Amino acid sequence: MLKIAHITDSHISEEGKMLGKIDTRQKLRDVLDEISKADYDIIIHTGDICYPGGDASVYKWVKEKLDNMEIPYYLTPGNHDNPSQMQEVFNLINLPPRVILTGVIAAKGESLMFLDSSSERLPLKQSTWLSREIGIQDDDLFLFMHHPPCHCGVKIMDEKYPYKTPDFFQKTIKETGRKLTMFSGHYHIEKTVKPENTKITVYITPPTLGSLDPEADEYIISDLRSGWREIQIEKQKLITTECHYLN
């Protein structure tokens, strides 16, 4: 059994800077403290570590906190991140056992794919790689990326900040008949979405900073609780997943 702690959307700024009245550094510390009390095998952060843009000093601070956890961790960037800075600060070579942008890892025998969606679209190189991996793997597919590849019923995100190339996922998965389970962030809310006429299930994990009002026309954090998702996978099957919150 592989037990994963999935975190996302920390939105950490330079030292001493708050997001409104929210101390995003403290919120990440609190979540990591709770994760450390459980028996997770790995931690996965699906991006938007930084806000408003990539910051080497923030990545260094986050790296220190993750290293102190003494749990293997994997990273893939969001639209507010800088992949080049992440590669440099985290000594990223895009290989396990520590960190990753785009690629495949094996954790306790389970195969997990990661996709860099920081450009908000799927470049040709990535689509070629993903098509190949889908063809190679025999079992159910698990993919971690920052953006969900579909609209998810959060007004401001669907209208202003959607993933710009969703068709590849739905077309490719439909053609192959494969089952794809995705874990994403970006939408700042807990939600499960199943695009029509596909075998895709997207689990959106709530952010460590607090969740959005899904009906609002502007960016409004209506739930200040910090969130993360627990995922359990065994023999390449999803056994269970649930979100946890801290007040």
CATH class assignment? Alpha Beta
Low-pLDDT windows of residues: none
Which architecture name does CATH use? 4-Layer Sandwich
Evaluate the radius of gyration. 17 Å
Share of residues in helices:
25-40%
Q: What's the main sheet like?
A: 6 strands, mixed
- Could you tell me the CATH topology label: Purple Acid Phosphatase, chain A, domain 2
Strand order of the largest sheet: 4-5-6-7-9-8
List the secondary-structure elements in sequence, H or E.
EHEHEHEEHEHHEEEEEEE
Number of strands: 13
Number of separate helices: 6
Distance between the termini: 29 Å
The 3D shape can be described as: globular
- Class based on secondary structure composition and strand pairing: alpha/beta
CATH superfamily: Metallo-dependent phosphatases
- List the domain count as a whole number: 1
Mean pLDDT metric: 93
Share of residues in strands:
25-35%
Task: Characterize the structure shown.
This protein has 247 residues and is of the alpha/beta class. It has one domain (2-246): 4-Layer Sandwich (Purple Acid Phosphatase, chain A, domain 2). Helix content is 26%, strand content 27%. It has six helices and 13 strands. It has helices at residues 24-36, 56-69, 83-89, 124-136, 155-160, 167-176, and strands at residues 2-7, 42-45, 73-75, 103-107, 110-115, 141-145, 180-184, 191-193, 200-204, 211-212, 221-223, 226-234, 237-246. The strands form three sheets. Strands 4-5-6-7-9-8 form a six-stranded mixed β-sheet, with helices on one face. A five-stranded mixed β-sheet has the order 3-2-1-12-13. A two-stranded antiparallel sheet has the order 10-11. Helix 4 (124-136) links the parallel strand 5 (110-115) and strand 6. The longest helix is centred in the N-terminal third of the chain and has 14 residues, at 56-69. The mean pLDDT is 93.
